[in-house]
Design goal:
The protein is α/β, with parallel strands linked by helices and about 375 residues long. The protein is built from 15 helices and 13 strands. Helix 1 packs across helix 15, helix 8 packs across helix 13 and helix 11 crosses helix 14.
């Protein structure tokens, strides 16, 4: 591990930069804070993932080379002692637990702020260590200076299940919309379905995991496909790929369902899709839903905890359906196709989740005195 300089700076800590919403939010925050002249470190347990290409060149990347995040305790503690950053902003609950332990061991005055991107009480971890995580969170989170929930729902959930003092909890909506997103949305998508075809395409974006419940989406699409000629694109990668492909084959819709994997520029797809669908079982604040709206794409979402109801203002900006209700999802997809919400309304609403809104709030919470 390299020697560290003592320049006053803010550090971000994440496990890696795989293609998820929390990682994308971190990238956006880094870009936004640079406009305030902040010196920034991005500290990674392991320097890997597709979002590495999107890290601004002015940000110093510190690779702890720890592999698994649990092995990052000692190198992160050393980084904090030697660099003594003004503040450490940690993302994702398993990394947050490690950040608290490392900060305690380092015995520095670094201000520690944790960001919680999920709704804790409804998450369904499979591994035993993940199931035990809430116990560690309840014990360790109070040692942080502040804890950010990315939606009102996620923050209320933290207060209820971790018994954290209210003065330590803050709601800051994810910084999603910036000029770069708008520019990227104008590009031509790589997939032929969105280039010259007149057949409507539904779009979903996210990791292929249980949480995203793309299985229900594919089943809802199969119902819709019986009455309309439509297609479905699901962008992302994950362990459920084979299961989802087999389901599409079983339902006889494989020719109209495509899973191209992780895509560098999903905004080009969003700006040309007939509608965007979020089928998740739970979220914190689904970034992709806001991104789709910023691209002017009509949206349909499950009313999962937490975030969609807040983003869509209880259905004003898009149809909300019960989690796992395949019939209701199919109906909502059809109604959105036939009567989409006005694009300008969607774009205007998405601006409430902009960098300009979020960055000053984060800098104030981090105690940065140049705001």
């Amino acid at each position: 591990m390299p020697q560290f300089s003592l320049t006053k700076r803010i550090a971000f800590f994440l496990p890696a930069l795989h293609g998820g919403g929390a990682e994308k939010v971190a990238i956006n925050l880094l870009q936004g804070m640079l406009t305030y002249g902040v010196s920034l470190d991005l500290v990674l347990a392991s320097k890997e993932g597709p979002y590495l290409k999107q890290v601004p060149s002015q940000v110093r990347i510190v690779d702890l080379a720890a592999g698994r995040v649990i092995k990052a305790i000692a190198p992160l503690s050393r980084y904090l002692r030697e660099t003594q950053p003004e503040a450490l902003l940690s993302h994702m609950n398993h990394a947050n637990v490690i950040a608290v332990i490392a900060k305690v061991l380092a015995s520095t005055n670094t201000r520690l702020v944790l960001v919680e991107h999920d709704t804790l009480s409804v998450a369904q971890p499979k591994l035993l260590r993940a199931k035990l995580l809430p116990l560690f969170m309840k014990s360790l989170y109070p040692h942080a200076n502040a804890i950010v929930g990315v939606s009102q729902g996620a923050t209320s959930d933290l207060a209820k299940h971790l018994a954290i003092a209210p003065q330590k909890l803050h709601v800051i909506y994810n910084p999603v919309v910036d000029e770069q997103l708008i520019t990227k949305a104008k590009a031509i998508p790589e997939h032929p379905w969105l280039q010259n075809s007149t057949i409507p395409v539904f779009l979903a974006v996210g990791r292929l995991t249980t949480q995203k419940d793309f299985g229900s989406l594919i089943q809802a699409f199969a119902i819709l496909r019986k009455i309309r000629q439509v297609r479905l694109l699901i962008l992302g990668e994950g362990e459920a790929r084979q299961e989802l492909e087999a389901l599409a084959q079983k339902l006889g819709i494989a020719e109209d369902v495509a899973l191209p994997g992780f895509v560098e520029n999903p905004y080009a797809y969003m700006s040309r899709a007939a509608a965007f669908v979020l089928s998740s079982r739970w979220e914190g604040l689904p970034t992709v839903l806001i991104e789709a709206m910023a691209c002017g794409c009509p949206v349909v979402s499950t009313n999962c905890p937490s975030g969609p109801e807040e983003i869509l203002a209880a259905g004003k900006y898009g149809v909300l359906v019960p989690v796992g209700d395949i019939s209701a999802l199919a109906t909502a997809m059809l109604s959105t196709l036939e009567q989409p919400v006005n694009q300008e309304l969607l774009i205007q609403r998405a601006q409430d989740f902009s960098l300009q809104q979020a960055v000053p709030k984060y800098l104030a919470l981090l105690g940065h005195n140049k705001v």
